[in-house]
Fold each of these.
Amino acid sequence: MKALIDPPPMVERMSFGYAETMADLMWIRALQDFDYCDSEVAKGICRNNSWLYKMLDSVTNLSPKFRMAYAAGALALTIIITDVDGATKIFDKGVKEFPNDWPILYRAAYHYMYEVKDNKRAAELLIQAANNGAPPWLFALAGRLYSDSGNMELAEAVLQDMIATEQDPGLIKRLQQKIQSMK
């Protein structure tokens, strides 16, 4: 098994004005081994804060607006090598850097829902995504996550807000039925 070298700590201080270029080079290097797991703790599960996480963290420190590192890199961490802690850190950085980018918010919600098992945070991210151009059915999914996590009042409030902004009578009726079924 090959061993890959981690990026040096605080690499952004060694960029000498070429932070973007260094970020690009590190991104290209990371792409070549997106599936590399330096220390497997179980079949298909990499130890937390893996080599890929360190590479993506360095890329985003060098170039905070490098959208693809958040959008694709964090997904690789969560899905390909199952570095849940590393993916959480990269998604959190991405959500902070791109609070209106609904695809990143949606992917972060997936991560929180399926990998972290934090339905409340996933619902918050889904609402944020839906408010920034994502499909409106994400409001209903967020309401469902809130109700599944025991936040019935919040679930009802989300669905009522969606009813207030929706013009489709069929969808309004389904949302009202969903509210009734929660009670």
Amino acid sequence: MQKFDVLTGVAAPLPILNIDTDMIIPKQYLKTIKRTGLGKGLFSEMRYREDGSENPDFVLNKSAYRKAEILVAGDNFGCGSSREHAPWALLDYGIRCVISTSFADIFYNNCFKNGILPIVVSPDDLKKLMDDAERGANATLTVDLVNQVVKGPDGGQVSFEIDPFKKHCLLNGLDDIGLTLEKAPAIAAFETKNAAAHPWA
């Protein structure tokens, strides 16, 4: 998993409440268990018209936001079904951070397991960051996980809280498999000791 420490990138405003996982990645894209290739389906029902052409009104289709790495979104982001394809699609598109006032629990935890930083801020702070994100070509934020702050283009900053263990995992690029591999020497020592004590096992 890619490490996350400091990210400076374009922030796209998505001031929609209750964006559920079906909006993030519709059900027709769930046939694969690969984590790649899902970026094309991200927000597809809002990004594309029925004929497959781009919807020019959707934020990620606007030239200033096509390479956005941060989303500033409305309350209750990631609600609905527990599909892990939702963070996979965000990451495959290039989104490394989502900022909102609240997240659905399962989506929130799935983000950390896939190298995405979900940040919870107050409604007042979200309004400031949404204003920054609405600046188009100047909508650049710096997300500093080490110091737990988001810095705006004018130098203002917003602090955020994060669980220390989840922070450790992101800073070190550790998903569930990575955490297990950290214990590999202890596991190997146990297996060697156990094999000597119980050769019949």
